[in-house]
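Continuing from the previous page...

OK, I double-checked the sequence for 43 kDa receptor-associated protein of the synapse against my notes and this is the correct one:
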Amino acid sequence: MGQDQTKQQIEKGLHLYQSNQTEKALRVWMRVLEKSADPAGRFRVLGCLITAHAEMGRYKDMLKFAVVQIDTARELEDPDFLTESYLNLARSNEKLCEFQKTISYCKTCLNMQGTTVSVQLNGQVSLSMGNAFLGLSIFQKALECFEKALRYAHNNDDKMLECRVCCSLGNFYTQIKDYEKALFFPCKAAELVNDYGKGWSLKYRAMSQYHMAVAYRKLGRLADAMDCCEESMKIALQHGDRPLQALCLLCFADIHRSRRDVQTAFPRYDSSMSIMTEIGNRLGLIQVLLGVTKCWMIQKELDKALESIEKAQELAEGLGNKLGLLKLHCLCERIYRTKEQQRELRDHVVKFHECVEEMELYCGMCGESIGEKNNQLQALPCSHFFHLKCLQTNGTRGCPNCRRSSVKPGYV
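Thanks. Re-ran it with the corrected sequence; updated structure tokens here:
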């Protein structure tokens, strides 16, 4: 298969893919991969296969094609192709919750800069690295990466990247419980979709609606949450987007749990868990198990709640997800207080505070914890964040957290 024929077949596959004929598109692209002698064409078709498998939630296949793409990029001896292939390798590992590997591959991308195309990929590299740091609950570095990605998006007038970063920032602020910002950013993403997204994939609309649904639920606006989640789920079903279907099912379950309708919540959690297991989203599984635990607690089935916690703890420890561990220690504390088991209670109180210290989840001004309840937060240029009211009351001549970390141990 020559260069022109390769190009035609890739375009044919793209047309099929955009018409929702995914399996036919995959067959066309696989045929190109088997028969084409054009390395640049092979590189491009591998990119199509990586994107398609990512959207279907076939992350192990995504990783397999990313590894082949690296070899093809080396054959081409082109730094742009090599940077792009390392970015795809980083993204594959991000989807499989291999966050340390993601960060490592992202750093490789950033060290390979030199050409215009490579520099334009910097925003996507920063976004992937930010998502990985967020998966590890390293909040300051996650925020630094997201803000860097946003700057690249603005400088390159890349509205699609800006939309994706806004969704990640919505997730970031949901985790540290500034629900006003958790809603603001996906709403901004939805605006970008409305203003610029006529030719975009519908996944951008679905993604913004899902993150809005999560924020609305946290704010107690359950009817709004349900509307947004239903719209997101409709698009996810139309496009066979398994990862988003799993997230929407989790959100539906959480909404029902917020309404104390445990019997409706349980089957939604089960369906979400099934897809999360199938695609390998271990971070999502932790969220499902947290929801299931809370349902058992509502029903006062404390031993069953502890069984769910044990499964979630194993996953959180394996991933290095510190926020998940903190939430689990908090739930254990409540359970053992009810059971009046003082030794276990004390153990989880100590571990909870260790997690808070490790993640620096406290305001450097008032000393109170961050992420315990809904609070307006403000980040300084160094990406340390504080209660907004503390900054407004006290002002700052620099970051107190940075000042503390720069003091030499001998003078503490």
